Amino acid sequence: MLSLACASAVMAAAGPDPIVATRQSSMKEMAAAAKTIAGMFDDKLAYDAAAFKAAAETIRARTGPTLIAEFPSATLGAPSGAKLQIDQARSEFEALARHIGMLATTLAAKAERAPASITDDMRMGSGPAMGGGSLLGKRPAAAEADPAKVPAEHLLHLILQDCSSCHSKFRQKSPVIAD
């Protein structure tokens, strides 16, 4: 027991794996960026084209191949929140990361050309869904056919939907170590 406690203390003193720390930082930055963009579309934050552009670029820069690279096999499982199942379903995980990256790249391109104020074509709108989607606003056919035709607000929702899907399958609650 004593040697286990000492080993745990040494590992804690050494700090987290640098890749895990980078990954956690990336996730926090993406969450903050998504919250910024959502706040602008929800009118909880004042719209600012430069802030929209910066937030969209933050998400784009941390998805796709960058996101995949932040999950090497050696960093999965405790004490990180990344499940070991990522390796068992690596192709599914990477497909999600690439899809999020494609959506984020499209969102960043739209943000690059963002006008001084939010326009109707940036919003999901309250009219009928495009491309045979549901009344809840999901537009999978339109988004898959040409995401560039999807409003920026909807792209953000699709990105968040992919993030939720990935987290529900591949993320675990990190164990809490009691004193």
Automatic annotation (TrEMBL):
Pfam families named in the record: Cytochrom_C_2
Record InterPro entries: Cyt_c/b562, Cyt_c_II
Protein name: Cytochrome c
Top-level taxonomy: Bacteria, Pseudomonadati, Pseudomonadota, Alphaproteobacteria, Hyphomicrobiales
